[in-house]
Structure formats: structure tokens, C-alpha cells
What we know:
The chain is of the alpha+beta class.
Amino acid sequence: MNAWQAPWMGWLVLLGGAAYLQYLWGRRANWRIIRGTAAECERALRPKDQRYTWIGGLIGYRADYVVRRGDLNRVEATLTALPRHSLLYFPVSWAWRRHDTLYLLWRPNMPLRSRAHAYLVAPGVLAPRIRDVAALHEAWVTGGGHRYRLLYSGEQSRRLLTRLVEAGASPLLRHVSINPEEGAVYCRVVARPGQVAPLVERLADVLQEL
């Protein structure tokens, strides 16, 4: 081995060791988040049946919950965790996303007739991209000291989103929308262990009594 190669070999060994340690730490952390959020969703929704599909092993899951709660029959959940097990990708993902995210798709029995969005307005929180904003009415809702901007096309959707925001307002609830084409209500939630179940339960309580 040439003398100039030795320092490079040392750096490669150190980088490999750091990557391995990052993988071990990230795997434990992500499994804790994956198991924790799944358990919290089940505790909040009390499903009659559930089916999970894993995403990339350590990245998250998709879940389909069959529930029997008034007007609420089915809830779909998708968790995307930060890639803590990747030494190179984790810093980039953290800088872009900042947190693990739980996407909830609620499918109530009642027909949803109009489109609407509500999103948290706070420092450091990016507004979602919403199409045809000019065609929507605007209102503001405050719950628990948190302000949400409402964009809606009909009174039914405005009333429903207002109830959801007032029930679930917190730094975790970032975006709620109604998609009448799918007959679904969508929520984007920061997946913070220990705080998911109360939020999901409050949202479910609203949607089961439409």
C-alpha cells in the first residue's frame, strides 16, 4: 500500500463504522415509531379488522382499518418516517421534511358535496399546494390558540372542516381536506409518539357523527 493511500483507507473505515452505527440507531428509532403509531391508531379507532403493508422495511407502513363507528366505516393510514438508518440521506430528508408524517384518509358514509382545505398557519410551517385557490371562499378558524386558513367551495364542507379543526387543532394537525370525488376526508399529521392517539380519537369522534 502506498503511503498516500493509508489516510484514505482510515477515513473509509471510519465512514463505514459511522454508517453502521447510524443504521443500528435508525433502525431501532424507526421501529419504535412504526410500532408506536400503529398501536396508537388502533387504540383510537378500535377497528374490527386491520391490514398492514410495510413500506421499504424501515420507512413506514400503509394500514387499512375497518371500523364500525356511526357514519365512519373505513380509515386508511400511511406513515412515512424519516430515514434515520441512512447516514447520507437522513440529514437531507430532515432538512426538507423535519418530521415523521402520518396521512389519514377517512371514508364516512355521508356524501361529500364540495371541496375544501384547512391548513395550519404558523412560523416554519409550509402551506400546502392547492389547485384553483381563486375559485374557493376563504375563512379563518382558531382552535386551542392555533390558526387555520379555510378554503372551501360549499357550506357543507366549511361546517365539517370547522368542526374537525376545532376538535383537532394542535401543532400536529397540519392539513385537512375534503375530496368529494373520492368521498374522503384527508388529514396530514405530524407523527409524534404519545400524541397521535388523542388527536386521531378526536377527529374520529367528529366523523362518526355527521
